[in-house]
Amino acid sequence: MDDLSRALEAALFAAEEPMTAEALAGFLGDAASGDVREALRGLAEHYEERGIRLVERAKRWHFETAPDLAHLLRREKEQLRRLSRAATEVLAIIAYHEPVSRAEIESIRGVQTSGGTLDVLMEAGWVKIAGRREVPGRPTIYATTPEFLEHFGLNSRRDLPGIAELRATGLLDPVDDAYEDLMGEAVTDGEAEDAPDDSSLA
């Protein structure tokens, strides 16, 4: 193992949170980002058959327990983070259509969304406020976080199941039609001079 790989290994073991290749290059001072990425891939191969793995989630690298050994490290009484059905639906809608406003989420779900549901998702670190929609009322819009990808073992949102698979569960049926209708209404509202202020829904 060369000096760069050893330095990356040490940095990642000491890091309090996952790090990008660029952040690692900056941490090491004079390392080139391309060299760091190549060294990280080599380290990942080195750890493939060991008790811990070096993995990349949302472009950030960290060590984690090998999946087949995870059961050895679980506490006797495991605390699982459980989401209500409403929170699960809202999280899925945000993940597939981000960034979205609360009014858009409600249009897709067909029911009102409690502010507490969004609070739960933000407290979990899976959803964040991503700004405001540039339409009348400027509603707040929401998006997922890198922690969401990391928790569910996704490298990017491209790894999410297809809409057809999601619809088959009955969770978001019919997402596509509702969302297209919503977007058409948003354009019409944006062009109208007397469009209502929907900030109270954001």
UniProtKB/TrEMBL annotation:
Cleaved signal peptide residues: none
Q: Which UniProt keywords apply?
A: Cell cycle, Cell division, Chromosome partition, Cytoplasm
- Which branch of life, at top level? Bacteria
Cross-referenced InterPro entries, in alphabetical order?
ScpB_csome_segregation, WH-like_DNA-bd_sf, WH_DNA-bd_sf
Q: Which SUPFAM superfamilies does the UniProt entry name for this protein?
A: Winged helix' DNA-binding domain
Protein name as annotated: SMC-Scp complex subunit ScpB
Which organism is the protein's source?
Answer: Qipengyuania profundimaris
Gene encoding this polypeptide?
scpB
